[in-house]
Specification:
The chain is mainly alpha-helical. The protein has one domain. The chain is elongated and about 95 Å long.
């Protein structure tokens, strides 16, 4: 009787700097689902308020922004009630910042998976970008209640909201791949991320695009190089379009003009998002083989 031969499987990366083995990721779909579920459970485990934190964080940020920048700062709000103006911006921002921060820490926090077994490592930074959708859904309930309070009815353009969230997903995932790779070797990344996201928030949420003076002409659209600017302006516009306006003085009289759709900002930011996604994936693939040795 012949002796059984030893079975050896050699796992090698696919060629190319943008390699993604979609078939392999599909084979590991159950692990991906488990990691998503684990991420949700661990995040709110042994917390007094549980998933309510997903609502409370953007809500209290909205309260602070309304008081500081609305009541005291008298900053424009495109004709919208200030709580609605700020919360509709903080909704996609809260998703983005949470996904980016968690994605950046994903490799280090799952170091046992990197060193003990083989998994397609690209799924680890992707998991927080998916679980963040739950927080987004829960926080959206508050926005719906606020819109009912202010008698605001969402227009048909509200169906475009997921498209803007997709841009936020791509930006968070691209940067998450890059920072997660850096974080394996340089743990300073974990310390720097709260500061980076906080500073980025002030560059994206406080002022509407309509507040940038028209004297700057097309230079105003450089604001779109921040992909989240197009996401926030687009999300606000598609949900609140009929209620948004800017006041202008023409011939000594004040007139109201509807706020234009932010398609130019989106068209400027979309290639930037794709560049971030491609660059993050390229760098991730370049250093991936060293993760298990360093982490």
């Amino acid at each position: 009787m012949p002796e059984p031969t030893e079975f050896v499987q050699i796992i090698e990366p696919k060629p190319g700097f943008l390699r993604i083995d979609w078939r392999e990721i599909w084979l590991y779909r159950e692990l991906f689902g488990f990691l998503v579920w684990k991420d949700v459970k661990v995040k709110y485990k042994q917390t007094l308020l549980g998933v309510a934190w997903a609502v409370l964080v953007p809500f209290f940020q909205m309260v602070v922004f309304t008081i500081v920048f609305g009541k005291f700062g008298k900053l424009p709000s495109d004709g919208l009630p200030q709580p609605i103006f700020y919360y509709s911006a903080l909704l996609p921002w809260a998703y983005f910042s949470t996904a980016l921060t968690a994605s950046s820490n994903s490799l280090v926090s799952n170091s046992a998976l990197l060193t003990k077994i083989y998994v397609p490592r690209v799924i680890l930074p992707m998991v927080p970008c998916i679980t963040g959708m739950l927080n987004l859904f829960l926080a959206s309930v508050i926005l719906v209640l606020m819109m009912l309070y202010y008698n605001i009815i969402p227009p048909a353009t509200a169906v475009l909201f997921p498209a803007f969230i997709f841009i936020a997903f791509g930006t968070a995932f691209g940067f998450g791949l890059f920072f997660a790779s850096l974080n394996v070797k340089y743990r300073d990344v974990r310390m720097a991320m709260p500061f980076v996201t906080q500073l980025w928030m002030f560059c994206s949420v406080i002022l509407p695009f309509s507040a940038i003076p028209e004297k700057y002409g097309n230079l105003r659209y450089l604001y779109g190089l921040n992909p989240m600017a197009g996401v926030i302006e687009g999300a606000r516009w598609c949900l609140l379009k009929p209620y948004m306006f800017v006041e202008k003085t023409v011939g000594g009289e004040k007139i109201r003009e509807a706020v234009d759709a932010p398609w130019t900002l989106v068209l400027v930011g979309l290639p930037v998002m794709l560049a971030i996604l491609v660059g993050g994936l390229a760098y991730f693939n370049y250093v991936e083989e060293r993760f298990a040795d360093i982490v």
